[in-house]
Amino acid sequence: MKVLFVCAEVAPFSAVGGLAQVAYFLPKALKEAGVDIRVFTPKYGIISSNLLRVENVLEGLKVPTGEAQKIICNVKVLKSPKKEDPIIYFLENMEYYEQRANVYNYSDDHIRFGLLSRAALEFVRQGDFVPDIIHVNDWHTGYLPNYLQTDYKNDKKLQEIATVFSIHNLHQGVFDFDHASEMDYDDGKGPLASFFSERFLKQNSLKRGIIHAHLINTVSQTYSRELLTEEYAPRLYKLFRELRGKFYGVLNGLDYQNFDPKKDKIIKSNYSTNNLSSREENKVDLQKEFNLEVSQHTPLLAIVGRLDDQKGLDLVMETIEFILAECNVQLVVCGPADNKHRDFFSDLEKQHPGIVGTHLMFDATLPRKIFAGADIILMPSKYEPGGIVALEALRYGCVPIVRATGGLADSVVDYDPTLSTGTGFSFKNYSAMSFLATVIRALETYKNKPVWKKIIKRAMDQDFSWDKSAKKYIDLYRRSQLICIG
Ligand code: GLC
């Protein structure tokens, strides 16, 4: 089985969020399972040059734009990649990728990712790798199934390629589709306009990917059900309902080799469920790293990952002063933050020196030290398609407090004292009161050391490995082929 995996971000080259983790670890697991999978992604200017030793595979790839003018790109490949890694193709273009300092947030992102989508198809058309399946991800590459079904419909080489579209997020790109006037409504059907036209900006690639892909999935079972409701997908739930027959949920995974507290070189002290006391050294190390008072018995709470509204941080903002005043806890916060959250958490740190510590930007290693040293991770997300941070925390025995939504509902089991089951604490209602009550419930449980230890052990014993999810993707690939040949 041959697969081309097209994605706007890929770890470790252009890691913005969980999407990049998936784009590295899922293909790796699929390769291990015997799939000839190759990744196709832009060569952004920000990719560190020591990661990027590349050579040409296709020079002067001409990509049609819908007008007479074509965009000329090169396709490069990583020289001598690690044996276990899939081949990664980098799409090279000065104007749209190399000269930009960031991965996202440009007014012409629709052109930049329209280009990625169309270039991937041209690469297949003009090159020697003809996949059975093209797997695309999020709005950036939702254009691709659309092109395949319209502009490339009669192309002999591409005709039998099936497409799978994974939804990691309902973001829909540059244009504000949620508040569009009736005149700008896009029914999602028909051919895509020229890259440079106003109409192209207003063509909804997420919707078009959903309509045109042979099969769609999102990154947890629960989120796939939530997307059928008006609450979670106000403008798309009817479409999801209509296309239910080709819509699946596959929970994201974790690379258990790479994320392993027994072997992880980043953390101070390695540990397993048999020697949990070694975990305590990591707590001290973490407290020092964030300039917190060193104290073994103070519960250390943590927030890790993208810090924006999706993550339900308003619930934390409403309750944290009370928690700090009444509960004798410490807090560390780590991840790229939008302005609102950066201001809030840096003020909080100033007001509570030695008790609150922050690192409000992306960091490749700190999260692991946090998972290994903190007692509790807070994830009260408003919505959470997958939620890889929860899987990472479980693996390291950092007990999650989550809102039972999306992938969090599928990965964290609420602690039940009568049955002695559970790997964390969860609540359903999106309210500050429910969140606070759950934090207090967790902190009360924390006081009972033997019980807490058992929760940690159960958390660490879970198996959310990528190989499990990879098998499910192989199954989806097969189904998409059946749908494709009709
Ligand atoms: C997005 C989602 C997150 C998911 C990730 C990878 O970032 O918000 O829940 O885990 O994509 O699929």
From TrEMBL:
Any one Gene Ontology molecular-function term assigned to this protein's record: alpha-1,4-glucan glucosyltransferase (UDP-glucose donor) activity
EC number: 2.4.1.21
Gene3D superfamilies linked: Glycogen Phosphorylase B
InterPro entries: Glyco_trans_1, GS/SS, Starch_synth_cat_dom
Record-linked SUPFAM superfamilies: UDP-Glycosyltransferase/glycogen phosphorylase
Superkingdom as given in the UniProt entry: Bacteria
Pathways involved: Glycan biosynthesis; glycogen biosynthesis
GO BP of this protein: glycogen biosynthetic process
CDD domains xrefs: GT5_Glycogen_synthase_DULL1-like
Domain Starch synthase catalytic: 2-241
Annotated ranges, domain Glycosyl transferase family: 294-452
Reactions performed catalytically: [(1->4)-alpha-D-glucosyl](n) + ADP-alpha-D-glucose = [(1->4)-alpha-D-glucosyl](n+1) + ADP + H(+)
Enzyme superclass (EC): transferase
Keywords: Glycogen biosynthesis, Glycosyltransferase, Transferase
Function: Synthesizes alpha-1,4-glucan chains using ADP-glucose.
PANTHER family: ALPHA AMYLASE DOMAIN-CONTAINING PROTEIN, GRANULE-BOUND STARCH SYNTHASE 1, CHLOROPLASTIC/AMYLOPLASTIC
Homology family: Belongs to the glycosyltransferase 1 family. Bacterial/plant glycogen synthase subfamily.
NCBIfam families: glgA
Protein name: Glycogen synthase
Species of origin: Candidatus Amesbacteria bacterium GW2011_GWC2_45_19
Name of the encoding gene: glgA
